[in-house]
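Two proteins follow. First one:
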Amino acid sequence: MKKTDLGRPRAGGRFGRQAEAERNDLLVLNAARAVFAEQGADAPVADIAALAGVGIGTLYRRYGSKEQLLQHLCAIGIAQTIADLEAALEAKGSGWDALAQYMAAAVDARAGAFAALAGTFSLPEEVSAANEQARTLAERLLRRGHDDGTVRGDVTTLDITHLVEMFSRYPRRTEQDDHARRRMLTLALDGLRTVHTALPGPQPDWAEYHRSWDAPDQPS
């Protein structure tokens, strides 16, 4: 899978309504990440539509409900994450260089913005399967850094996930905000290198993380 720049249609000759739908998907994905990152899970769909520059009626005609919209956005978001991970795995250089490339791309795309929605809607099976694929790729990427000794051995893939989620919530209202975010990301990436103080506490637990995404029980 090749990465597609957000906000641009895929190369390859898609035309007409299909190309327009893809462009709208990417615009809405960008807008949704920004809105949810700053407003949280209760952000109204109207704000997403306004930021994307599309009509809210268009969104509901295409998706039917807020939950369907969120499920679709998660699907195309995880597809982009997989593409970014694959690109990093193919990159030359050290394991740390490849990990830094992926994290910069993920943070720039606000790939962790949907973490604010954990547990508020159900994930389709195909999205859950894609999440597992992304996790496997991330583990390969991190293992590369562990194997060549450029990434500290106590860093886990869930540590990387948490960092991406944290930086995805960082506000971007001004050029200074974006500059500060890049500085903090550089500091965080440097902290992933070898020869550092041991990380405090136990390693994070994937099972606990997955439980946060469980949809609430529906009333009978």
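Second one, unrelated to the first:
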Amino acid sequence: MTPLNFWFDVISPYAWLAFERLPQALEGCNYSVNYRPVVFAGLLKAWGQKGPAEIAPKRAWTYRHVAWLAQAQGTTLQIPRPHPFNPLALQRLAVACCEPGSTPNRRAVELLFRHVWCRDGADPNEPVALAALTEMLAPQRDPANEDVKQDLRAATDAAAAHGVFGVPTIECGGRLFWGQDALPMLRAALTGDAWFDGPDWDAAARQPEGVQRPS
């Protein structure tokens, strides 16, 4: 059984789409998944990037794109208002659903994603709904405790140090696959596609840098 690491932040519609699609995309494969909550904004800061919603035309495209992808793969997706929102409460809740050093199970992660993307555009941080979700998940630790906050910060820092720059990112055999649209490539790697045994994976990453924009 091949272990996969799935880094996610529930703020990302692409992470929700990839999470929902994963069992179908990898049907027939022998694998297990460790779901690893991180803070997308922390990754953006680590790599000096802007998020899609911070660039006006890209924001409009992103919402159109994920709406189309959702209907194409048959996944419910209703953009919450506001979006982007502050996902810290939900990501800390994900961390709190397991003991230190462990990762939340798929059921817990699914409930977190559905809380964001399947509630008719409701605010994910609405206190009554958030309290109901917390009660349903019955976390093993208090999400407000400093150890949970520190674990989430450490997980985000460790992910960035590992080369994770966005969500979703899935690791298979030491290789990182970014984005919902990388699922077919992930499946190919998982099923022993000969391309991954040749030089192309490493050679593609050795492309020399081109012209640099002034900072």
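SUMMARY FIELD: The first helix runs from residue 13 to 25. The first strand starts at residue 2 and ends at 8.
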